[in-house]
Amino acid sequence: MELIAKVEAEALAAIESATTTAELREHELAFLGKNGSISGLMREIGKLPNEEKPKFGAAVNEAKAKVQAAWDAKSASLKNAERAVQFEQERIDVTMPARHRSGGRKHIMQITMDRIKDVFTSMGFVYEESPEVDLFSYNFGALNYPDDHPAMDEQDTYYITDDLLLRTQGTTLQGHVFETVKPPLRRFTIARTFRNEAVDRTHSHTFHQVDVFMIDKNVTMAHLKGTLRTFARAMFGDEVEVRFRPDFFPFVEPGVDYAISSPKLFDGKWVELGGAGLIHPNILENYGIDPDEYSGFAFGLGVERIPMMAYGVDDLRLFTENDFRFLEMFS
Ligand code: FA5
After folding, report:
1. Residues 255, 151: contact at Cβ < 8 Å?
2. In total, how many domains does the chain have?
3. Which of 6, 18, 199, 243 has most Cβ atoms within 10 angstroms of its Cβ?
4. pTM of the model as a whole
5. In this predicted model, what pLDDT tens digit does every residue of 89-106 receive, in sequence order?
6. 6 CA to centre of ligand 1 in angstroms
C-alpha cells in the first residue's frame, strides 16, 4: 500500500510540474502506459497473499484513476495554453489598413491617341508613321513651300544639318506616302513634332499632331467637313459643329482653319482646332497624280489641344511634368 501511495505521489507531482504537452506525454508513458509504473504495480499483485489481493487491486485502480484524472486535467490546461500562444503568434489584425497597391494606368495623351486611332481606322484610314528626323525636302519642299517662303518662318525648327531637321508638322508623311502609294488612298499619322518656340501654356518645343489625308475621285470640301465633324463628335460629343474660315497653307488650295463649337464646351463659343484644305494640285502633279482625275483633302491639328479642351487643362506642360496628382485624374 505504501508503494501505491509512493508511485501515485510521484506521478501526481510529475504531472503537476509538466510545462508542455510533450513532457506530459512522456509522463503518460512512464506512469499510465503499458510498461508504466502504475501498470507495474498490478504485476506486484501476484506476490501477495490471496486475501490481500482484492484490496491491493482496488487501491491500484483508485490510484490509476486519480493519476489519469490529474493527467487529463493537466493535458487540457496545457493544450489551452499552447493554443493561446499559437493563436497569438498567428494572429491576423483584420482592422489593419490594407497596403496600397498602385496599378499602372495609361497617360492621358496615350488615351487620347488611342481614341484618335480608333476613329480614323473605323473610317477606313490607314495609320502610318514617318521619321521624326526628316529631310528638309519632305518637311517643306514636297509640301509646295517655295524656296525662302515666309510660311517656313512660322515653323522654325532644330537642324541636324542644312538638309536634316526635326519635323515641324505631321503633314511630312504625305511625300513619303505619295512616292510609294497610288490613289485612291487614305492615311493618317500621329506625329511627335518640334518647333523652335518660346514655351508657354499653349506652346511647346515638342508636341504632337494628328495629320490626315485622302485622295480619291471627286473628293471635295464636303468630304473634308464630314470627316472632321465625325472626328470632332467622337472626341467632344454629338452636338459638335465644325466651321471653316479661309487660311493659308502652301500645301492646300483652298486652305482653311477650322473651329468647333458645342453647347457643352466654352459656352458654345467657336474654338479653333487646326488647319485643313484640299491638297494642292501642284503636289498631286509632282507625284504623277492627275489633278483632273483625282482630288484630296488634308487636315492637321495639335493632339494636346484635345484633352486641353475636353477636360479644361489650361497648361500643356502638365502633360510632361508627370505629377501623379494630375495623371491620376484620368483613366
Ligand atoms: C500645321 O502644322 C499644318 N501642317 C496643319 C495642316 C495639315 C493644314 C493639313 C492643312 C492641311 P499649324 O502650324 O497651324 O498647322 O499647326 C497645327 C496645330 O498644331 C495647331 O492648331 C496647334 O494645335 C498645334 N501646334 C502648333 N504649334 C504648336 C506648339 N508649339 N505647341 C503645341 N501645339 C502646337
Report:
1. no
2. 2
3. 18
4. 0.73
5. 988 888 988 888 877 889
6. 106
**Residue 211: CB atoms within 10 Å:** 23
Q: Which residue is it, cell 484620368? A: 330
Q: Who lines ligand 1 at CB under 6 A?
A: 169, 171, 195, 197, 203-204, 207, 209, 211, 249, 252, 274-277, 298-302, 304-305
Q: Examine the domain organization and report whether 155 and 205 are in the same domain.
A: yes
β-pair partners for 159: 165
Q: Write the CATH number for 257.
A: 3.30.930.10
Which residue, 192, 201, 190, is CA-closest to 313? 201
Over the stretch 140-166, which tens digit does the pLDDT of each residue have?
A: 999 999 988 888 888 899 999 999 999
- In the block, cell 481614341 appears at 115
CA angle 187/135/214 to nearest 5° reads: 15
Q: CA 18, CA 14: separation in Å to the nearest integer?
A: 6
Domain that holds residue 322: 108-327
Judge if 266 and 132 occupy the same domain: yes
CB 185 within 8 A of CB 294: no
